[in-house]
Amino acid sequence: MVKLVEIDEAEYDSDSQYTTDSESEHDIHDDYVDSDFEDDYMDESLLERLAALKDIVPVEQRHALSKVASRVGYWGDFGMRLVGKLAWVFTTSAFLVVLPLAIETDREKMMMQWESEQSGAQGQAPPPGMAPNMAPGVVGPAPGIV
């Protein structure tokens, strides 16, 4: 069993083998700064660090990592190409189908407005979409032809 004893600061001898936390951190930092490690660390390029990894990582693991990276690259490329092709198909289909439909709807709307203006100018007000004395949706004879 361990017995703990409290030591007063008056009894503490500064020349003892034990140091405080702040003293030990200061000593470690001085030793660390005095070494040339920081200079070597800062001068080392990223390429040199990657080349050093080649010696650390075994050949089998390097090949496995290379395979995984290659497969991820392949499937990423495949996925992006597929998304691009699908986007092309959907946008061109939308232009070919929706654009003419929108133009025709606008044209129909303008025609209905013009017909209502013409009937209002003659003094008659038929319901929208119907010519006078005609069934809905039936186009009447051209003006001037009887």
Question: Would you spell out the secondary-structure blueprint of this structure?
Answer:
Elements: H1 21-34, H2 37-43, H3 46-56, H4 59-121
- Oligomerization status of the protein chains: single chain
Instruction: Characterize the biggest β-sheet.
Output: none
Could you tell me the strand content as a percent range? under 5%
What is the count of helical runs?
4
Query: Tally of extended strands?
Result: 0
Low-confidence stretches: none
Architecture overview:
This protein has 146 residues and is mostly helical. The protein contains 4 helices and no strands. The longest helix is centred in the middle third of the chain and has 63 residues, at 59-121. The radius of gyration is 44 Å and the shape is elongated. The mean pLDDT is 77.
Question: What does this entry show, briefly?
Answer:
This protein is an all-alpha fold and 146 residues long. Helix content is 65%, strand content 0%.
What are its keywords?
mainly alpha, single chain
